[in-house]
Amino acid sequence: MRIAVALLILVAGTVSALAENLVTSLSNHRVLINSNYTGTSIAVFGAIERDAQTISRASGYDAVVTIRGPQQFLVVREKERLGPFWLNQDQQKFPTAPAYLAVLTSRPIAEITSEQLRRRQKIGIQAIVHAPDFTNDRGGLDEPFREALYRLKSREGLYRENEKGVTFLTPNIFNASIPLPATAPTGNYDVEVALLADTVVLARTVTHFELVKTGFEQQVGEIARDWSLLYGLSTALLALFFGWTANAVFRRD
Amino acid sequence: MQIYLPIAEMPVSVLLILGLGAAVGFISGLFGIGGGFLMTPLLIFLGIPPAVAVATQSAQIVASSTTSVLSAIRRGAIDFRLGGILVAGGFVGSALGVWFFAAARRAGLLDLVIVVSYVTLFTVVGSLMMKESIREFFLRRKHGPVRPRRNGGNHAPFLGWPVRMRFYRSKLYASVIPIIGLSLFVGFAGALLGIGGGFIVVPALLYIFRVPTGVVVGTSQFQIVCTTLVALVLHAVANQAVDIVLAILLILGGVFGAQFGARAGRNLRAELFRFLLAILLLAVGLRFALELVVKPQEPFSITVQETRQEARP
């Protein structure tokens, strides 16, 4: 009974705090990869619903769209001098790093909210990469590795931040385009949209999309995984056959 | 034109891969080597995951070496007895190499072992061949064509050890002990460094065992086909890293390249052949040495240990 009352108060509290209601939608929940796939983009639409009690916001709204790809276990290594040689020495493990990470905002993230809040709410790539639970803390030794991960991933186009990525069509309706490079791995992607005003998070939604191989690409992947011996033997036979054919074709004597 | 690779999970340019296959195939056919030590770094440079690059290029080696082996058979340029010993010893050597690989990794010395062995192997073999071919070149200019150095008593003393065998095609009558030793070493280095070992077999047969150039190339290719076929199937089973689409593209380019390479090789004078192979080996060795010694622009690198496909909790 006491719990029920407590829940009721809690729910009532959230409802009054969340005067704005955020509705988001993706253009596509299942992206298919076929043989001429070279990357794609997915549109996010958002609408802010207000009711009679909603106070007017002088500063207008901001939206932060964060896209996280499948989780990867990554190891970042650093080459250091050992005698005359440069060799991989120190390393840092990132057990749950997203393979793809994009943060799209309507204006520079520093203008949207305070650094403290960014760090607490993990808003922006810097905040995500430097979060304490992103990798184990080694008292400052982990810092260069976090920076290196971000630098190398953004060079591949897999980690990106775009401060002009979200466009407000009207004060209450916005859209954004998620750029997916061809090297983004297959799997599940989370799209988190946070609505802010006056540096405060007002509402959040989380939606998902899936990047999957279809047709021939999917079948090859399944056969290679489930029938690996057969797959290996047929690739070997194919190679022998091609070699034999080429020899027969080019035979002159 | 781009095509999506189902196992590497990325698109590549069809023409680029065909061209790459043809270029490496040409060198492979010319010198009787597999060419894996050239193809693997090139594929990784294009952004293909290292495991997929190593596993898939073995399919191309099988195809281009098969072509060379078939034409060598017709010319009678394979010593099957010698090749058989190389293959059998190679498997034992590979097992030892895999064991050593794991031991070095446990000791945290794997990177050092691999890079140093690469540099040593390529520069030593390359400079020995270079020295030999330059010496031959000057001898030839002074005294006219060099007579084959196949005089009685003019061979390394260990060839006279017990358990002698006669290899007719190779015009060799020698103890099998050093041959087994060579095959063990090639298998060992192959497993440790991920190479077929053709570039060790070719100079060893040429210089130590004095086997005629034509037979050297055929026999080496025979050994490569057998070893790489096993490696290809093992890669498919153990790592599921063989990309059949990439393999077909590389093969299509490779078999053409290998044909022209083999034809060019037949017209090449023996000492020029050795000189060119020496330059190739030295260049690759130098590249690895530079990588080891020069301060890297980006000291950090990322390795993907695992990608989780299921939805996050």
Automatic annotation (TrEMBL), chain A:
This is TIGR02186 family protein. The lineage of its organism: Bacteria, Pseudomonadati, Pseudomonadota, Alphaproteobacteria, Hyphomicrobiales. It comes from the Bacteria. Keywords: Membrane, Signal, Transmembrane, Transmembrane helix. InterPro entries: CHP02186-rel_TM. Residues 1-19 form the signal peptide. It holds the Pfam family Alph_Pro_TM. The chain crosses the membrane at residues 229-250.
UniProtKB/TrEMBL annotation, chain B:
The chain crosses the membrane at residues 12-33, 39-59, 80-102, 108-130, 176-209, 215-234, 241-260, 272-290. InterPro entries: TM_pro_TauE-like, TSUP/Inactive_protease-like. It is a multi-pass membrane protein. Keywords: Cell membrane, Membrane, Transmembrane, Transmembrane helix. It is found in: Cell membrane; Membrane. It comes from the Bacteria. Belongs to the 4-toluene sulfonate uptake permease (TSUP) (TC 2.A.102) family. This is Probable membrane transporter protein.
